[in-house]
């Protein structure tokens, strides 16, 4: 009998160990480019991360030059009407971030972040080249015309011309989508969260990544947009291809310095096991003492081993997956019995959903700044001097001019100062950072609505054209809010306890952009349908003339949605904090706000 009990305990320990290994990749499990264990003195750290930051700056430079001026190209060269062109842009940007999920999955499950970046970096490069070819050859575009003078005389791109355009465009989307989350994850992987100094550097890395992003955006929105405007879109797309090439060279140059994590293979299997086990035992009652759960012997300890997670009271239904129903020497299947740590991983992932959802409206606002606000600027006085005009697409450079100074000051001055009071490596917690950004975004739309009302009245009633500088506040406010929300969201998701899923979780943050841009397209269609009060009325956004549209009312609608979204975020962030506390008040992946 004693031998049977010993055998049963042995099987249980082996099962717990196997399930832990399926979820955990410890800090020591990193390798160099040859597959050998990495050396902390030679691999990783700030030096290795700099090569990734180089790629990030040049990649965003290339994709931003395409995306931010795409609506002008689609209208003037491909001759799509304004509302359809706006949807093409938002769908393109949204698809980029949907493909981020594919890139995150392939990285964490099969390829690793380095190889995923390299393979899909060349896919993105091929898309840039095809766009340049399409913009250069007249036979791949509809005949030239001026859609601003007579839209009806312009032939919309169809057939092979449209197919070639969308094929090139979505090769760029596929490549960029798979590259983006892995750039952030691969750079962050160069730092060890268990080492105090490197943990602080990891927080600084996220700010540095946003600085690289801002620099790439600034160059794209000034120099590259100027090239597109004065030398043609074919040259502009070609420069994007050149920028991507330089970025890939930067990545390859750091190959010998990177520390790489091996893919897990079974990315979703442990999650499915918890769900199936919990459902199969749905009629059972979970014990009140978590120590009675399978693998719950650490639930009430003050010090928890790094390979386990303490039990938390949130989502108690999932605890049923840990109920042991067989006390004999018969081994239960991993599809019917899971460990507490395995269940806590799934709880963590589920708790991220409302935080993720709270950023969708935020990114819907971003979509307006890349579409309608660009057209808004086009209808204003863009003259800076007698010989120089500001390209409307360069309006989005306004916040990045400020951010290249603000981000270093934030990291070097504010973070150390706040750290003295909060004890947080990042100064303020990621959830606080997200919330502050969401709050600010509301005022971006308030500013946009007030400006559009003034611009429209001046044009229609007084015949005056306002200076393009009036549009500056809405871009500045949103730029600051994005610095807080975007960086806070990535840092919060990356630092969650689901080890081995870093790339996929970062891809989820990018997926928020996708849903935001898709929601923008849906919202435009719904608003037009609801506000079409007569046969001749096309709704608030149905005309190609902003003087006839009511873009100001649409901006007010977004301001209201943004405020409601912020209030919702406050509720869910507080729920996340309270529910992530274990029975002994240990915070697991928690935060304060």
UniProtKB/TrEMBL annotation:
Describe its membrane topology: Multi-pass membrane protein
Output the CDD domains linked to this UniProt entry.
MFS_NPF4
Write out the GO biological process terms: oligopeptide transport
Query: Mind telling me which GO cellular component terms the entry cites?
Result: membrane
Instruction: State where the protein is found.
Output: Membrane
Q: Name one GO molecular function term.
A: transmembrane transporter activity
Spans through the membrane: 48-76, 88-106, 112-133, 205-227, 239-258, 349-369, 389-410, 431-451, 471-493, 505-527, 553-572
Classification via Pfam families: PTR2
Keyword vocabulary terms for this entry: Membrane, Transmembrane, Transmembrane helix
As for family, the record states: Belongs to the major facilitator superfamily. Proton-dependent oligopeptide transporter (POT/PTR) (TC 2.A.17) family.
> Which protein are we looking at?
Major facilitator superfamily (MFS) profile domain-containing protein
Species of the source: Brassica campestris
């Amino acid at each position: 009998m004693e031998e049977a009990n010993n055998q049963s305990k042995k099987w249980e320990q082996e099962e717990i160990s196997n399930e832990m290994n399926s979820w955990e990749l410890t800090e020591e499990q990193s390798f160099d480019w040859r597959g050998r264990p990495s050396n902390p003195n030679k691999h990783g750290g700030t030096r290795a991360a700099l090569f990734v930051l180089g790629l990030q700056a040049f990649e965003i430079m290339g994709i931003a030059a395409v995306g931010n001026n795409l609506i002008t190209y689609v209208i003037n060269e491909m001759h799509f009407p304004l509302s359809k062109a706006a949807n093409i842009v938002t769908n393109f940007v949204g698809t980029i971030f949907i493909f981020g999920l594919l890139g995150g999955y392939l990285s964490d499950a099969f390829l690793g972040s380095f190889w995923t970046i390299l393979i899909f970096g060349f896919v993105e490069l091929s898309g840039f080249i095809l766009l340049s070819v399409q913009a250069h050859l007249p036979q791949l575009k509809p005949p030239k015309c001026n859609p601003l003078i007579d839209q009806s005389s312009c032939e919309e791109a169809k057939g092979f011309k449209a197919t070639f355009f969308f094929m090139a465009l979505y090769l760029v989307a596929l490549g960029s989508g798979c590259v983006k989350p892995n750039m952030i994850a691969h750079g962050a992987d160069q730092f060890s969260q268990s080492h105090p100094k490197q943990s602080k550097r990891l927080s600084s890395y996220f700010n540095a990544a946003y600085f690289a992003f801002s620099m790439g955006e600034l160059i794209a929105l000034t120099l590259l947009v100027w090239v597109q405007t004065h030398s043609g879109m074919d040259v502009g797309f070609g420069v994007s291809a050149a920028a991507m090439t330089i970025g890939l060279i930067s990545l390859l140059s750091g190959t010998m310095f990177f520390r790489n994590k091996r893919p897990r293979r079974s990315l979703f299997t442990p999650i499915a096991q918890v769900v199936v086990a919990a459902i199969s035992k749905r009629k059972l009652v979970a014990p009140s003492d978590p120590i009675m759960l399978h693998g719950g012997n650490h639930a009430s300890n003050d010090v928890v081993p790094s390979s386990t997670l303490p039990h938390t009271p949130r989502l108690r239904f999932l605890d049923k997956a840990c109920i042991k129903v067989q006390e004999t020497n018969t081994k239960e299947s991993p599809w019917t019995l899971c460990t507490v740590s395995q269940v806590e991983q799934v709880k963590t992932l589920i708790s991220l959903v409302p935080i993720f959802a709270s950023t969708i409206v935020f990114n819907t606002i971003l979509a307006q700044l890349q579409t309608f606000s660009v057209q808004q600027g086009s209808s204003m006085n863009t003259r800076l001097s007698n010989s120089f005009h500001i390209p409307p697409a360069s309006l989005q450079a306004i916040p990045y001019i400020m951010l290249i100074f603000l981000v270093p000051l934030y990291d070097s001055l504010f973070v150390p100062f706040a750290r003295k009071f909060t004890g947080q490596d990042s100064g303020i917690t990621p959830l606080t950072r997200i919330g502050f950004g969401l709050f600010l975004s509301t005022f971006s739309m308030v500013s946009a609505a007030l400006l559009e009302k003034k611009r429209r009245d001046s044009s229609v009633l007084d015949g005056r054209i306002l200076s393009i500088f009036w549009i500056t506040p809405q871009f500045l406010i949103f730029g600051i809010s994005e610095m807080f929300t975007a960086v806070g969201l990535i840092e919060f998701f990356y630092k969650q306890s689901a080890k081995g899923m870093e790339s996929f979780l970062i891809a989820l943050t990018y997926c928020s952009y996708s849903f935001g841009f898709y929601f923008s397209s849906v919202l435009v269609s719904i608003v037009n349908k609801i506000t079409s009060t007569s046969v001749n009325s096309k709704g608030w956004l149905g005309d190609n003339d902003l003087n006839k549209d009511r873009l100001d009312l649409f901006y007010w609608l977004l301001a209201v949605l943004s405020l409601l979204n912020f209030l919702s975020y406050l509720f869910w962030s507080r729920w996340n904090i309270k529910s992530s506390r274990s029975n002994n008040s240990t915070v697991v992946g928690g935060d304060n706000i």
